[in-house]
What we know:
Elements: E1 11-14, H1 22-28, E2 33-38, H2 42-45, H3 48-59, E3 62-66, H4 75-88, E4 92-97, H5 99-114, H6 119-122, E5 134-138, E6 150-155, E7 160-165, E8 173-176, H7 186-204, H8 212-234, H9 239-253, H10 267-279, H11 283-298, H12 303-312, H13 322-339, H14 346-349, H15 355-368, H16 381-390
Parallel strand pairs: 1-8, 2-3, 2-4, 4-5, 5-8
Antiparallel strand pairs: 6-7
Helix pairs in contact: 4-5, 7-8, 7-9, 7-11, 8-9, 10-11, 10-15, 11-13, 11-16, 12-13, 15-16
The structure holds 5,6-dihydroxy-NADP and zinc ion (ZN).
Amino acid sequence: MFAFNYFTPTRVVFGRDTEQKVAELIKTFGGTKVLIHYGGGSVVRSGLLKRVTDTLDAAGIAYVTLGGAVPNPRLSLVYQGIELCKKEGVDFLLAVGGGSAIDSAKAIGYGVANGGDVWDFYDYKRKAAGCLPLGVILTLSATGSEMSDSSVITKEEGQIKRGYSSDFGRAKFAIMNPELTMTLPDYQTACGCADIMMHTMERYFTNGGNMEITDAIAEGLLRTVMTNAEILVKDPKNYDARAEVMWAGSLSHNGLTGCGSDGGDWMTHKLEHELGGLYDVAHGAGLTAIWGSWARYVYKNCLPRFRRFAVNVMGVEPTGSDEAVALKGIEAMEAFYRRINMPTNLRELGVKPTEDELVTMAHKCAVGVGGAKGSARLLKEADMLAIYRASL
Ligand code: NZQ
Ligand code: ZN
């Protein structure tokens, strides 16, 4: 077991109609002038944005709005948001939406609080010394950004998608009403479930120490999300299934399922970030398209964990060699992805990279991780290229 530092300062307000508490929560955390940041318009169409602004109006809280955060949120909008906040004297950020709106808001918060070029943080050139306080109304269970320390931004120039992690970026509060996710397209619901599971799987497949309690939480979380993801394929309005998935999303990326480990593997995410940067694919689908190839490439180097995963999560009979059991677990996970209509390779994802593009992605990925990364197996640029090739 490794020592760990578990910090989850976000107040979670969970359940039906909880968005009505937004003004009260902003006041609790000292907000007097708010930037409401959202995505491409789903919160306008659903009426959620109007309900939020009505609540703020009634409470006498001033605000400005900025929509337009797209999936794989762009740096140019972040710059726009920073300028708007400075001009308007904004002292509190409210992200209403999924991971993209939340991550974009975090980046705006870093930009306002620190000055200079905010991309420096994503380019690993310096560390943030603060962030504007942030609240979240979550509409998509997926990234866990509502409780995580991360923000992932895409710089248009060079199509570079990078994450920055800092405790300053953790939300002060997260309002989570599972009903708000019922307007999601089925594809986004499934992408979200895949992403949620991957945040735990990245922490689970390690060669570092682990705690039995952490493994038990991780395995329970994975089984719960699988069960409820399949319920949502058939019954998208099922409140209880939405609630299970929503809470799992937060717990999967707030650090809980990594306590005592070596920090995790994270290479599936890093390989996906290149796909997101280059082809603008949905994050969860990019992850499932790459995971099988990654798993087959690394499982022999992390056999006890893959065997345990097969038996405890995927329900594989523990008979036969460890390798055979581990492989059955990988196959079972891919079968699950197909049942929730997620891709298991790049063709099914709908992208057809050329050999040159694969080489470019592997190179950018290697640069992005500082040369080599991975706990299940340490991957260098040549390994990354091999995995991309195997995922075609
Ligand atoms: O933009 P709008 O119109 O709101 O539509 C969005 C978008 O098209 C739509 N949507 C969201 N809630 C909805 C809804 N449509 C109908 N009803 C609702 N209730 O769904 C689409 C996807 O939204 P987005 O926010 O992009 O998805 P997600 O939450 O999956 O976020 C993806 C981004 O987060 C990053 C990903 O890489 C990607 O850029 N990640 C962030 C992490 C973090 N901050 O901790 C960790 C993750 O691993 C991930 O990398
Ligand atoms: Zn993710």
